[in-house]
Fold this protein.
Amino acid sequence: MSEVKEDKLGTLKTRLEEIRVSLLNSQLAEGPTEFGKVSTLHYGRWVILSRDSFRDEPAIPVGIRLALSTNYDGVGNDHEDYHLTELVTKLTKYIDDLYECCVGYPEPGERTEDSRKNFLKKGMIRTSAFYIGAPGRSVSQIHQEDALHQHIWKFLQNNKWDENTPAVEIHRAIRQEIDSKPEFAWSKEKAGVQGIKWGPLIAYGLLFIVMLPLIIVWLIYLFFFHELWDKKVTLAQSELNDAKINELKKVEDIFPQNQFTQVAVLKPGFARKLNFRIWMLRTKVLAGDVFVKGKLLNIPTIHFARWVLIDNNKHVLFYSNFDGNWEQYLGDFIDQSGWGLTAIFSNTVKFPRTNFMGVLGIIPGMPLTFPGTKFVLTGGAYDEEHFLAWSRSTQVPTQVWYCPYRHLSIKNINNNTEIRNELRHDLNEKQAKLFLKRF
Amino acid sequence: MTALELSEIQSFLLNDYKEMSCSKYYLMQVKDAVAAKSFLAAIAHGITHANATSGDTSLNIGFTSNGLKQLGYHETNMHSFSREFREGMVTAHRQRLLGDFESSNPSIWQWGGPANDRVDLMLLVFGKDEATVENFYKELKQKFEPGLSVVHTLDGRTLPNDREHFGFRDSISQPVIKGSGVKASGNNNDIDPGEFVLGYKNEYTVYPDTALLKVAQGKPELLADNAEGLADEQTKVKYKDVGRNGTYFVLRQLQQDVNGFWEFLKKQSTEADENNRNEDATLLAAKMMGRWPGGAPLVKYDKNPGKDVEENDFNYLKEDASGNKCPFGAHTRRMNPRDVFEESPPKVSLNLTRRHRIMRRVRSYGEDFIGSAENHQPNGEVGLLFGCFNANISKQFEFLQYTWANSPKFKRLYADPDPFIGVREDPEKKMEQIFTMPGETTNRVITNLQRFVHVKGGAYFFFPSITSIKFLATI
């Protein structure tokens, strides 16, 4: 995150818009893009973050900032350094054009690989929690496995098998076909797929059981001494600012994937901050060890998501890259993990008031219904209309957004890896039938 | 269970009037706001409500956001209507959501598009026959004439046995609104009223966004307070609710290329014998729809029963988890995923499905023609006047169209748009459009899907309660 020179804001906006338009045009024409030169880049975005980005009064005064966020493959011994080098050497013009509008960027004569990298490093902020929909898959692997899927799909189209041909035989024929193509030699090596790490999960579960009385006391305290006293929020979607909504919609639903950037202000006081930290820690642990099969809190459409505390930990930034459109994404959030969201975001100001903290949500997979009753937790994200209005109104326009595989859903990406691995296994008839269902 | 105030709700929401063979929708423009409002005052009691005994004719009325503006609806009050309704069906973003490109581009619509006459409101007249409707309309015309003028008329027909032009039986799986007095249907079709009527709780057990009167105008004393109890922050006076007992209506004129549809399917078949080819084409059509032409669900009937079957009591998880019977990409499986909503467990799936339902109200137009593999060349343009009621256009109609129909990434699919309403004529480069039919071992795939349904017009309407119509006459 870099401080923007106030008199350069106009220039910066123009340049960002130029990058956005030229990127979009190249993508629509299926041509190469500047970002494509950074072969390890999954997603990247630039967002201008200023007082205007905040719906609510910021907890501390904020200037105008340019935020850059990337999802990249870890290469080399020092992942971060390798990535920064790629950014400043391959996107040099973009970096120079944008960051010369920022305070402290090296003067033209002093711009070197190192001075550029050092500038970006200075503004770096650690992520509080991070989720990956297809852990371990590099950009090139995603492209390779996509090509493999397409090739097998065509092979299946071009060859007709008798109804009675066993699936194992077709599976074998596919393997022979792939083995005969040198361009798929890489597929002989099994792709690593991260499994659920039971150790940390069990440790987490035990810790939870031990801490349960304390947690209950904590939640009751939070509910009766904090949540109950917060003002009820009744902002509806119809009341939102038209100009802002239109700015957001202008760049939405052009491709099957979309992005979401949000900034919210944490509620004041130690209790809220601590509660937020607890939930961040929980999300961090579970995202790294448990949510490794393409679903974040049961939501099956997210490629990458991250939470970052900024401004002396007073504000929280949320970024995500997802399949489908906004309405579907936010609907999924309510339907699949309203409790998880409520637990995190109820610590931010003017979030729809909850009627009970999401106590049961701490146990992953624990059902939230008791027989014959409605949700234990109501309000918060379950207050559908007001929650959607909260989400839209705290969303921040994203100036530039890049993804190299926008035609693949996260389910496609994970399915493609399964195809690659199952191709090499000796499957029984039942397994082979399931394998063929993947196409 | 909250009982609906049936005498307040316009009848078309609860009665599909399929027994009335003639339906005419008059799209109108406000010429003189004062005269238009006296017309509203005069006919408010003549608008058919859901509690009325049915006669030879029925009359309903819907307003576009333009129409409310023309009548003098205050801008601040306008702002409490849903964004979708306020913006209307034609915006750059909505064009992407609904997939209205190429032959469906609003710029070449017959009505409702930017090049067409502005549509302010719509009168819907249902009658047992053409003459009855015409006579009724003549009387109406004398009353509305100085204030309103007709810019376009849509002629709706009910084809025999509820069929539509491609040849399928229509509207088998309809939701039933709880508290409406309509017999519960079971099988997950009984839906909370707030999904269809403003002022009641929806499937999230919250009130849908409704049209509050934030600035006094007309005679607010006619209106009830809003059910949620929202009040002005300073005065603590509760807002009056113009939306209460009202609903939103989506109308789209969908031209159907019946000949193109059946010719395309017959071309997919490799059968030499014509009878076998027709049979195969009918199978493909059924796979795309999820039901045989007579309505029999594929999940329960793997062979064409050759007769009308209205069966609706089935789910997907136990019966057809693999999609071997009914493909995942089939129209009816997409539009009502029942107990397989993404990968959620069945009970959760059923809950989630209930949050995305619409009340279909469709008519056919053009020749009374029911297509089949054997006979598929109608005279002149034929199509469907697709209509549906919903309380939240974004969560219901638009969600169905974008997320479930247009998105080729639906569920685990790669490149399968809805074969009836989701195919693009000029897809983005590299984007293949296919229809996958899972099989016992290998899948059967139709490639290079073509579009056989073309949007020719459309608009979003607000159907106010009887009381709110009276109120609108006073603004």
Remarks:
- Chain B touches chain A through 50 residues (CB under 8 Å).
- The mean pLDDT of chain B is 95.
- The two ends of chain B are 34 Å apart (CA to CA).
- The first strand of chain B starts at residue 22 and ends at 30.
